[in-house]
Inverse folding.
């Protein structure tokens, strides 16, 4: 009997000591709390990246009226789903739903100052931070205009796409104008040829020099003239 009392007493003393140490050092001995995320993320400057993230709290994945926060290593909230709490980084967005155990983070138009460590914090039936599963974000130099990377996670800024779209549109418009110009030119030359009688030659003026050309040569000169007019006006 005396041995049992001594054992119980010892267990209680050890428990109290551990609890005291844990409180002093802000330990968190919580089972049933987990977080799955890629802890190292690299994104190019001016590009966007989505970081998939899932968590459990108290062995649960479904909650009501919960909130999620992503914090910097200095414990500053950078993104929040709580309407009453504003994140310090507008380009950091929690695109996941904490009520469904989703802590997915999206960074848009990444900047060099966005590089650093961040961790997720959950607020629901209990409040718990997953600082032990922090992520490290590394923002590299922006890509060249000729380099565009597209996949399901990374998405470069719209600037490169706009440039490509403008170039493509300009080429299409130029080709269309050339085609229309050639159509009316051919139509006019065919009519003139019928009226003039077959292979009659015609005078075409290029610059300050008058040249006598055949129908084919005239078409070539006019085509080049239309092309240069369109090119100089674009």
């Amino acid at each position: 009997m005396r041995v049992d009392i001594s054992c119980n007493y010892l267990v209680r003393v050890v428990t109290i000591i551990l609890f005291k140490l844990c409180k002093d050092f802000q330990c968190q001995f919580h089972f049933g709390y987990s977080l799955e995320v890629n802890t190292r993320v690299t994104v190019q400057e001016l590009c966007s990246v989505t970081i998939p993230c899932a968590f459990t709290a108290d062995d649960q994945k479904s909650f009501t009226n919960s909130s999620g926060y992503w914090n910097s290593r200095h414990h500053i909230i950078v993104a929040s789903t709580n309407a009453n709490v504003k994140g310090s980084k507008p380009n950091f967005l929690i695109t996941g739903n904490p009520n469904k155990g989703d802590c997915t983070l999206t960074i848009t138009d990444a900047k060099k100052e966005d590089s650093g460590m961040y961790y997720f914090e959950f607020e629901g039936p209990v409040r718990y931070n997953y600082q032990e599963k922090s992520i490290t974000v590394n923002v590299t130099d922006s890509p060249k205009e000729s380099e565009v990377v597209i996949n399901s996670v990374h998405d470069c800024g719209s600037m490169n796409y706009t440039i490509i779209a403008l170039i493509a549109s300009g080429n299409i418009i130029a080709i269309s104008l050339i085609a229309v110009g050639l159509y009316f030119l051919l139509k006019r030359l065919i009519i003139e040829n019928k009226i003039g009688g077959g292979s009659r030659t015609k005078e075409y003026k290029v610059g300050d020099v008058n040249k006598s050309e055949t129908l084919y040569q005239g078409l070539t000169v006019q085509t080049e003239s239309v092309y240069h007019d369109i090119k100089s006006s674009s």
In short: Residues 158-196 form the longest helix (39 residues). Residues 116 and 137 are 5 Å apart (CA to CA).
